[in-house]
Design brief:
Layout (H helix, E strand, L loop, with lengths): L16 E4 L1 H19 L9 E4 L5 E4 L2 H7 L8 H13 L4 H20 L4 H22 L1 E2 L5 H16 L8 H14 L9 E7 L7 E3 L1 E5 L13 E3 L2 E5 L20 H23 L4 E4 L5 H9 L3 E3 L4 H11 L16 E2 L2 E7 L2 E7 L7 E7 L2 H23 L2 E4 L3 H14 L6 H12 L1 H10 L3 H12 L9 E3 L6 E3 L6 E3 H19 L3 E4 L4 H18 L14
Parallel strand pairs: 5-15, 9-10, 10-11
Antiparallel strand pairs: 1-20, 2-3, 4-16, 6-15, 7-14, 8-13, 9-12, 13-14, 16-19, 17-18
């Protein structure tokens, strides 16, 4: 009787939604599978593209897993984890964003029957972590180094990696053309880690083949005044002066007061203003510079002055472009024109202004520091050029990674099949339940070759059986065999130059396993309601001043005054 009279303990606010136990874990797994189904069809060279348009009406056509995940406004808390791993894969490696989402969802899908049968999720997590460690060790063992090769050999190997990345993108038809361009751009910036040293400029019109690489800097012609057309548009070995000051006629500050006793003195003040600007311009000319660039405006007087002296000038140059010119030409940005010495001037072999499509570009070629490169992209529709830029970003990241961590593995699902075989074999040596869990992890890895087949329209079961048979050969010669997209059979991925940096796969497996373990370890989801009172309080505080002032308002007087 006493137990029945016990008061009920209310711990959480009324209306709080709590779900726990097996049912909510299964619901989280289903949500992650649903997210993966969205990007599933974009995997591989025959992957489809997604068209996403938002409430502002802007349209994005993309094949890139991370871009699609960012644009989908996912609100399910567990599914958001997949968005985060796609973003982290994109920022860390650049490619493999679809792979990482698919793997994480597949690991969860394989875990689902065990969870439903009442297996404790910690047992699954332990086995998955073990399998992940084994998989990464095996991958490092299978990776092939491209270290110690000559520059030409290295270039062709890196181009193969870039081509593998680009083959699944919208510009896959011209992958060789763009792959060599990307490799040249990455080698041009050398050991510089800053990605913004490779500029990508987009010019609508023309076709993809009209895109070109500038071994230096290119930027669109800036706003110019009269006199600009009289300036020379091409120089050989010019000196370049970089400024962060305005070269405009400045009147005295508005609130300055000058008292004159004699009207003739007024002219001397006007002359002083003109002398200041002419003094600045003379110093620029005397520095010997033939190209003057400024972050701020260069006015009409200065433009004409430079034109009369055969000097090219451009004002309002974007900050990132000016930074890249600084890195390329070896100049230093000046905040004053006093004491401009030769050491602060940059130089390049050729400076010219060229017409590209409807735009005019200022191009600096043959820069001495050579720490920068610019890719000028051409193409039909704006959405197409946007997607081409995203594809090149992925390829640039891949080449940078391959250059730093110089090991590659076979692509086309070959490495996934080989690790799957290795884990199945290893699972047989384990007694207990974890044998089943590691087996299910191994099975999940097969999602990559299976999806490649599905997206290309091949019979996945048939191709996977052939791959399993090839990889099971005791000699180990079947390890580099993956899906052959061209014929619908299997082929040696290494011989076909379908390579990817080992780092991409290692990162993908690591991130996917972490995400799967994180979702499996959640046993309760608590959703706090937005309480009515909280909203009421917020509204009251927003109205604050007005509400309080009302008490003091009198007739015919201002607000907030006492009667």
């Amino acid at each position: 009787m006493a137990a029945m009279l016990q008061p009920q303990i209310i711990l959480l606010k009324e209306g709080t939604d709590t779900s726990q136990g097996k049912a909510q874990l299964v619901s989280n797994i289903n949500a992650c599978t649903a997210v993966a189904d969205v990007v599933r069809s974009t995997l591989g060279p025959r992957g489809m593209d997604k068209l996403i348009h938002d409430d502002k009406g802007s349209v994005t056509i993309s094949n890139d897993g991370a871009t699609i995940m960012k644009l989908l406004d996912i609100i399910h808390p567990a599914a958001k984890i997949l968005v985060d791993i796609a973003k982290s894969q994109d920022s860390e490696v650049g490619d493999g964003t679809t792979t990482v989402v698919l793997l994480a969802a597949e690991f969860l899908k394989e875990a689902k029957p065990f969870i439903e049968d009442g297996v404790h999720s910690q047992n699954l997590i332990r086995s998955y972590r073990t399998a992940c460690t084994l998989a990464i060790e095996k991958m490092k063992e299978l990776a092939v180094s491209i270290e110690g090769k000559s520059l030409e050999e290295k270039k062709s190997l890196l181009a193969k990696c870039a081509a593998t990345t680009l083959s699944s993108k919208l510009i896959g038809g011209e992958k060789e053309f763009f792959a060599s361009m990307v490799v040249d751009a990455v080698i041009a910036i050398g050991n510089d880690d800053r990605l913004n040293m490779i500029g990508i400029k987009k010019v609508p019109g023309g076709n993809m083949r009209d895109s070109f690489l500038v071994n230096g800097v290119a930027f669109k012609k800036t706003f110019s005044y009269a006199g600009f057309e009289q300036q020379p548009k091409k120089f050989l070995n010019p000196k370049i002066l970089l400024l962060n000051i305005e070269l405009e006629l400045k009147s005295e500050k508005e609130n300055a007061e000058i008292r004159l006793s004699d009207p003739s003195q007024y002219q001397s003040i006007v002359d002083a203003e003109w002398n200041i600007i002419y003094d600045k311009l003379d110093k620029c000319v005397n520095s010997g510079a033939k190209v003057v660039l400024s972050r701020l405006a260069i006015g009409d007087l200065a433009t004409q002055y430079f034109a009369d002296r055969d000097i090219f000038c451009a004002g309002r140059v974007a900050e990132e472009d000016l930074k890249r010119v600084t890195a390329a030409t070896g100049g230093t940005v000046q905040t004053s024109v006093n004491n401009v010495i030769d050491e602060v001037l940059g130089t390049c072999e050729v400076f010219e202004e060229k017409q590209v499509g409807n735009e005019r570009f200022n191009i600096f070629n043959g820069c001495p520091s050579g720490q920068t490169a610019t890719i000028v992209l051409r193409g039909g529709a704006d959405q197409f050029i946007e997607e081409a830029e995203r594809s090149l970003h992925d390829a640039i990241m891949i080449v940078r990674r391959a250059l730093k961590n110089s090991t590659v593995v076979a692509g086309g699902g070959a490495i996934d099949m080989e690790i799957s075989r290795y884990l199945r074999q290893h699972a047989r040596t384990i007694a207990g339940k974890s044998q089943l869990f590691i087996n299910s992890y191994a099975k999940a890895l097969e999602v990559i070759p299976r999806q490649l087949c599905d997206n290309a329209g091949f019979d996945a079961t048939d191709v996977l059986n052939k791959l399993r048979q090839k990889h099971a050969l005791p000699s180990g010669e079947g390890a580099p065999y993956g899906v052959d997209i061209a014929t619908g059979g299997i082929a040696n991925s290494f011989a076909n130059f379908v390579w990817e940096p080992a780092l991409v796969k290692i990162n993908a497996i690591n991130a996917a396993t972490e995400a799967a373990c994180l979702i499996l370890s959640v046993d309760e989801t608590v959703k706090n309601p937005k309480s009515e009172s909280a909203q009421g309080d917020a509204a009251a505080s927003a109205m604050g001043g007005r509400g309080r002032g009302g008490g003091f308002r009198g007739r015919g007087r201002g607000r907030g005054m006492r009667r």
